[in-house]
Amino acid sequence: xxxxxxxxxxxxxxxxxxxxxxxxxxxxxxxxxxxCFAVSLGLLEEFGPERIRDTPLSESGFVGAGxxxxxxxxxxxxxxxxxxxxxxxxxxxxxxxxxxxxxxGGQFSVPLVxxxxxxxxxxxxxxxxxxxxxxxAHIPGxxxxxxxxxxxxxxxxxxxxxxxxxxxxxxxxSLYNVAGEIADDAGAVDIDTAAVRRSGRDVSLxxxxxxxxxxxxxxxxxxxxxxxxxxxxxRTLRPLDDAAILATVARTHRAVIVDEGWRSGSISAEVSxxxxxxxxxxxxxxxxxxxxVDSAAALRQAPGTGRTPLRRPRRRRxxxxxxxxWVTS
Amino acid sequence: xxDEFTARRVTADPERARHLLLQMLRARRFEEKCVELxxxxxxxxxxxxxxxxxxxxxxxxxxxxxxxxxxxxYREHGHALLRGVLAGAILAEMYGYEQxxxxxxxxxxxxxxxxxxxxxxxxxxxxxLPLAVGLALADKMAGRDRVTVCFFGEGAVxxxxxxxxxxxxxxxxxxxxxxxxxxxxxxxxxxxxxxxQTDIALKAAAYEVPAWPVDGMDVLAVxxxxxxxxxxxxxxxxxxxxxxxxxxxxxxxxxxPERYREKAEVATWLERDPIDLLRAALEAAGELPAKTWAAVxxxxxxxxxxxxxxxxxxxxxxxxxxxxxLYTERGPK
Lengths: 329, 333
What we know:
The structure holds two protein chains of two kinds. By secondary structure, chain A is α/β, with parallel strands linked by helices. Chain A folds into two domains: 2-181, Thiamin diphosphate (ThDP)-binding fold, Pyr/PP domains (Rossmann fold); 195-292, Rossmann fold. In chain A, 31% of the residues lie in helices and 19% in strands. In chain A, strands 3-2-4-5-7-6-12 form a seven-stranded mixed sheet, sandwiched between helices. In chain A, strands 9-11-10-13-14 form a five-stranded mixed sheet, sandwiched between helices. Chain A has a two-stranded antiparallel sheet with strand order 1-8. Chain A is globular. The model of chain A is unreliable at 310-329 (pLDDT under 50). Chain B is of the alpha/beta class. Chain B has a single domain (4-321), classed as Thiamin diphosphate (ThDP)-binding fold, Pyr/PP domains (Rossmann fold, 3-Layer(aba) Sandwich), CATH 3.40.50. In chain B, the strands form two sheets. A six-stranded parallel sheet of chain B has the order 2-1-3-4-8-7, with helices on both faces. A two-stranded antiparallel ribbon of chain B has the order 5-6. The relative contact order of chain B is 0.17. The mean pLDDT of chain B is 95. Classes of the chains: A alpha/beta, B alpha/beta. At the A-B interface, helix 3, helix 5 and helix 6 of A face strand 2, helix 6 and helix 7 of B. Chain B: GO terms for molecular function: magnesium ion binding; pyruvate dehydrogenase (acetyl-transferring) activity. Chain B: The pyruvate dehydrogenase complex catalyzes the overall conversion of pyruvate to acetyl-CoA and CO(2). Chain B: Its EC number is 1.2.4.1. Chain B: InterPro entries: DH_E1, PDH_E1_Alpha_Subunit, Pyrv_DH_E1_asu_subgrp-y, THDP-binding.
């Protein structure tokens, strides 16, 4: 059937709410507004205001409340409007969600899912363009997911909710309108392994989330130049699927990591380090990286393209997208 | 000099008064031993003692049911002990031993105990308030009539998490009892130097939360207001807020030269030692014969001594186990 990334996420939330009455969705404008990116549009009418719970602009308060509710036996899905605002909740995510199990000697677990939207490319300037998923992947105690395909948008949430520990899901803002075919019975997917999205022999292009499609697009002109690129989707940034990363490098002997995060201290740096530590003698060339410049984001369009940087081609407006200021079209 | 009101309350229920005296004394003697052990370098790291503030914890714990939840801050030995965490398990935790209530992972500032629903032990000021809101939200959504009690100091009211949490609890009418322990100093910063409005109950009231100031040195008053507030919260009355005026007799931590307060001020508050006050009232009422008082002290001393023996016999968690429980352990796939 046809769907969009947004609809797939919504279907995942609806399924979780239907299957498990401990699940509820909480966040800013998830209810009456329909979700800032229209992911939860219509769910308030379906499940009511107790389970589709609008919150005040109190990121630390409601993320902490999500942690507390998880401690109390619920299975909350907390939506933080964008990753930029999650910094206001960093104390709760890092000092509580990520540490409570370890610090209590295994007595308490935090079965919480936090969803948020990272990414640049929509002319939103410095404070609305962060890609901090790699930063969150620095924190032991969390699991970090970056669904890049319709199948992962549809299937990662349920598996994340089964995880007894806190899981952060990063839904890149440029993906919500991506449309395509998905199996009618699409459902839960694993959240442990990376995936090869295009097989190749000459170089591994390692990426995740919002930059997967751009990387797949880049593989086409490379093929015309006679370079057969393997496109590798990390899917989960913590824990990294080391075995699969090393296996792709062993096949192609070259690796380029594509990461929208800042270059210095990024997840691309971590992946590069692991390849160098464990697959150095498989390499025919130094590991390369394509990352964001170490700078705050500027508003203007990318030079010479008539487009904002990282803007994806072939985007289609999805249902419910109209009127939502941050939904790209 | 025992005022008539206090005398009447003691006489009305001497059994309850003696129970509260015992509880306060347990926390006091336990922490006096902790200070001794710290000085002997048996306990390391940060350690903050509650000496002088015992009436606050003792008064509320008596009003709680086993299924209620309790959250406290990093000065929480007394709260944990009076909630029912075993003294030996607390002390072993402070030693950093595997036999501690958190396997020696958290120490003095991070006591947790699932059996008594004691959720820390939070060393980030105001960091526990949002958790209390969430625990109460879970109870409300599940239709349980539990109460979540959240202790914090007056320093926390300057944090955003305080305001966010009180607002959420009020907005959603959640069963939380907020307990602000106003000991006048956030570490070394006096309340008047950090707050433009020093009436803390007023701040909670601004969020439409019923809030009262209470004399935190009068354990009978604390217990009575706590009992009423817990009853109201459990009955569906939404969050309630009690501001307990109290005083920390000792330094903030073991590294505090106390340059920020006058000795005379400390001396004035020492005259209102909650244990001395209640003991004097009981004695004046003839409800604490010397033999009974000796028995109470003996009971407490035995508990503390047994805790020391238990902790001393502990062992540190093996190094190879220190990364366990970061994630939930799963069997082989």
